[in-house]
Each structure stands twice: as C-alpha cells, then as structure tokens.
C-alpha cells in the first residue's frame, strides 16, 4: 500500500483508541474510545478506517435504521488531507450502506466546512435543511444534507 493510497476496511475494536486519538485532534467535542466500541457493538452501524503506510489516515461511520442511514463521523488526519481519502471513505461507506439495504443517507455538516460540503455535493448529497445552533465549541449552524441511492 502506498503512502497516499489507503487500505479501507471495517473498523475493529482494536482501532478504537487510535480513532479516538485522531478524533481528539480534530474535533472540539470528540468521541471517546468507549463511544466507538459502543457503536461497533450495537449491530446497526457501519464504521470504516483508512490506513496508509504511516498509520491511521481517517475514518467514517454511519448508524442504520430500516432503509435509512445517518453518517455520524467523517475525519481525515490533517497531514493526509487533499489526497482523496475522505472521498474514498464516504464512497465505500455508501457502497456498504447500499449492500445493507440503505436507500436514504443523511448527515449534518458545519455551515463553514466548505470543503466537506463540496465533497458531499460531488457525491450527490443536497442540502435539505438547517439546524440552528446545532454545533457547539464554537456555536454554529449545521446543514442537513441527504442522498437517495
């Protein structure tokens, strides 16, 4: 596997601490390693990790209910950004969701996160609403985006 061509696979319990450490670097309200372990054990979630020769490059996750999924996390290590890793993760997550019978996918994104919004729009998501004050630290609105597949 090359430095920038990641291997994408299902997250395993042994990944929880590394994923949580990356979460703490990137987000003001990070998930704990126990939060990831709980998500992995709930039976209705799909979580993926991307690894390169340098280690964990990113991860993403989705909770599923009936034929709908909600993307909860998409994160790429700062030194690995702008190499298509986020796109690969979300594309693989959507493919896994489709195999699981998920036909509609929702997510929230900070209104200021222009890079993520562009990525989601390229993948077919559309803004369908705004959640006022959804995010904290700092307080910010969130777009609700949806995709039917």
Level-1 CATH class name: Alpha Beta
Give a short account of the largest sheet.
7 strands, mixed
Count of runs of 4 or more consecutive helical residues: 4
List SSEs in N-to-C order. Answer: EHHEEEHEHEE
- Write down the domain tally: 1
Q: State the separation between the terminal residues, measured CA to CA.
A: 30 Å
Beta content comes to 35-45%
Structural class: alpha+beta
Mean pLDDT level: 94
Helix content: 25-40%
CATH architecture: 3-Layer(aba) Sandwich
Characteristic key phrases:
single chain; 149 residues; alpha+beta; Aminopeptidase; 7-stranded mixed beta sheet
Description:
- This protein is α+β, with helices and mostly antiparallel strands.
- It has a single domain, classed as Aminopeptidase (3-Layer(aba) Sandwich).
- Helices cover 30% and strands 39% of the residues.
- It contains four helices and seven strands, in the order βααβββαβαββ.
- It has helices at residues 16-26, 33-41, 85-99, 114-122, and strands spanning 7-10, 45-52, 55-65, 68-76, 104-110, 126-135, 140-148.
- Strands 1-2-3-4-5-7-6 form a seven-stranded mixed beta sheet, sandwiched between helices.
- Strand 4, helix 3 (85-99) and strand 5 form a beta-alpha-beta unit.
- It starts with 6 loop residues before the first strand and ends with a strand.
- The model has no long low-confidence stretch (mean pLDDT 94).
